[in-house]
Write a structure and sequence with these properties.
alpha+beta, Beta-Lactamase, 3 domains, six-stranded antiparallel sheet, about 25% strand
């Protein structure tokens, strides 16, 4: 820089007074406002007007590294604002650009924009900014006194800029707090609405409308997990009829679709963002959002808002699901209670009493209502009928079908039809009123208590066991196929003779198919062994002993099917 010309003492004094006056004015102007833009405007305007400088710029440090951003300009195009450069080892005193070493890469930036003089803004934080000035309009060089003036200016400005930055940060924090409060209020209001309904689709619609209104987007899909797969609950602005739903269960953070090749098809549909909806660190749903109408990017606070709102909505959706499951459970319990009542009302209230015949029956329902049924029907003073059946399936449907069977049986027994005709008519009735998945194993027989003759037909049921006084077994299997499979089929009748001491056991598969911990069945052999071991017991005691032995065999009070049995024993 050229050596300045000598001045007279009086001129130097006048110049000093003028500089002090200017510094006082600058100090007052700078401290008059905490607005950072106004401060930077004054940092450039006052010295440029005082010294007739052609151009100037102010750069402020951004972040912890050495990056400086252009935050104030005069004499430059507006597009320069916000431009960032890296200034490693920035100067700590006023320096002419021509004195900067060529090894400093940032020198070319200032040289390009014809900056001649660089002043650092130094505070306790270090160099927080740089002020660059171009040449004087007159073309004269900067004098030593002017450099001292500018150096003093930078010292004054540094403190003011720090204050402005602090105020700017406080205002930014306040604005962020205001946004947070607004978002919390919005979340609170939406959550209140979400908790006012237990309709999942309505909850999802409220969520999608809230997201679209708050972020100004026109596309939104709410996915929820069902049976370990995602399904579309509500879609706004997107056609989902042929949408292949992706595997989103592993998604744990918001995902911009433009950053993921995996979800490119959904980006092509006009979606921009996936936000997981999580409960207890598990993704139970996903919120898919389209781009902003304004075209802007999604900010961090907006992603936080969507995450919080989505999680809150997911809690409401889970509550609604649990409520629906509770209603379904109550409905099923009511159905089971109805079925149990139907089933129990079908069973005989009393056991017929005949001389020289000991009769006992038992029905132990499982936790689920099955289709077991037995009946003891007095026909005259010397004869009674016995029936046992098991419907395929469980629940109220099985109980209703068994009720129809009982009503049909009682109606047909009031006619003069033979046993085989009665069973054939029952088969036709069941076939016409049920589907192929519904059928009934059925056994019916009639005992003449005077002669001991027992005539029967077996429609696919477990063959009853006739055990004589010596323990010999005869199974009653004569008959035909199960009821309800074929429209017209013949049923044969069989007959056996019950002598004094003989036993006849009718049972359902709840007895024979009871299992132990090795999944081995109690089986017909176990039933037969119980009959043989209890021949000297009465019928009721024999059945109770059999039930107890099955429970010991299973090592559990839990039973998986109804247990029904009728034992007839001739005495005398």
């Amino acid at each position: 820089m050229d050596k300045p010309k000598a001045q007279e003492p009086s001129q130097q004094l006048d110049r000093r007074l003028l500089e002090l006056t200017a510094l006082f004015e600058i100090s007052r102007s700078l401290t008059a406002s905490f607005n950072l833009n106004a401060i930077l405007e004054n940092v450039l305007r006052i010295p440029m007007g005082y010294m007739l400088i052609s151009r100037g710029m102010v750069l402020l440090k951004k972040g912890p590294d050495d990056h400086f951003s252009v935050e104030g300009i005069k004499g430059f195009p507006r597009k320069l604002m916000g431009k960032t450069i890296e200034v490693d080892d920035p100067p700590v005193r006023a320096i002419a650009i021509q004195e900067v070493s060529d090894t400093n890469q940032w020198k070319s930036f200032f040289a390009e924009f014809e900056i001649q003089l660089l002043l650092p803004l130094v505070s306790s934080r270090g160099v927080i900014g740089l002020v660059g000035f171009g040449g004087k309009i007159s073309g004269e060089s900067y004098e030593e006194s002017e450099l001292e003036f500018l150096d003093s200016l930078s010292n004054i400005a540094a403190t003011t800029v720090v204050n402005g930055l602090m105020v700017d940060e406080i205002q930014s924090v306040n604005r962020e707090l205001d946004r947070k409060i607004q978002q919390l209020n919005t979340i609170f209001d939406i959550s209140r609405e979400l908790n006012m309904t237990l309709d999942q689709e309505k909850i999802a619609s409220l969520l999608s409308f809230a997201v679209m209104g708050e972020l100004l987007v026109n596309k939104c899909i709410v996915f929820t997990k069902q049976d370990e797969a995602m399904r579309v609950l509500v879609a706004k602005g997107v056609e989902t009829d042929h949408l292949k739903i992706p595997d989103l269960k592993t998604l744990s953070e918001p995902l911009l679709l433009e950053d993921s090749d995996r979800f490119q098809p959904y980006h092509d549909l006009g979606l921009s963002l996936f936000v997981p909806m999580r409960i207890q660190d598990e993704t139970k749903g996903v919120l898919a959002v389209g781009p902003k109408i304004s075209g802007g990017e999604f900010l961090g606070n907006e992603l936080e808002f969507l995450t919080t709102l989505g999680n809150q909505a997911m809690t409401s959706l889970e509550n609604a699901q649990l409520f629906q499951e509770m209603l379904e459970k109550q409905r099923m319990e009511e159905e089971l209670n109805l079925a149990r009542n139907i089933q129990q009302n079908m069973l005989p209230k009393d056991t017929p009493v005949y001389e020289h015949v000991d009769i006992a029956a038992i029905n132990i329902p499982s936790h689920e209502v099955g289709g077991d049924y037995y009946d003891l029907i007095p026909l005259d003073e010397n004869k009674f009928g016995v029936a046992i059946a098991d419907v395929a399936g469980k629940g109220a449907g099985a109980a209703m079908l068994m009720s129809n069977l009982q009503a049909g049986l009682h109606a047909l027994l009031s006619t003069d039809l033979s046993i085989s005709d009665v069973v054939n008519r029952l088969n036709q009735q069941i076939y016409l009123n049920t589907g192929l998945d519904k059928f009934i194993t059925f056994f019916y027989g009639e005992l003449n208590v005077k002669t001991g003759e027992f005539v029967y037909t077996n429609a696919g049921h477990n063959p009853p066991m006739k055990v004589d006084s010596k323990g010999r077994l005869e199974e009653l299997a004569t008959g035909g196929i199960v009821l309800g499979m074929i429209d017209s089929v013949g049923y044969e009748c069989g007959s056996v003779h019950l002598k004094p001491g003989d036993s006849l056991l009718l049972y359902t598969d709840g007895f024979s198919e009871a299992m132990d911990e090795k999944e081995e069945e109690f089986g017909e052999a176990g039933i037969l062994n119980c009959l043989r071991c209890n021949q000297k017991q009465n019928a009721a005691k024999t059945i109770l002993n059999m039930v107890e032995e099955i429970r010991e065999f299973s090592h559990s009070d839990m039973q998986w099917d109804d247990m029904t049995a009728v034992l007839i024993r001739r005495t005398g």
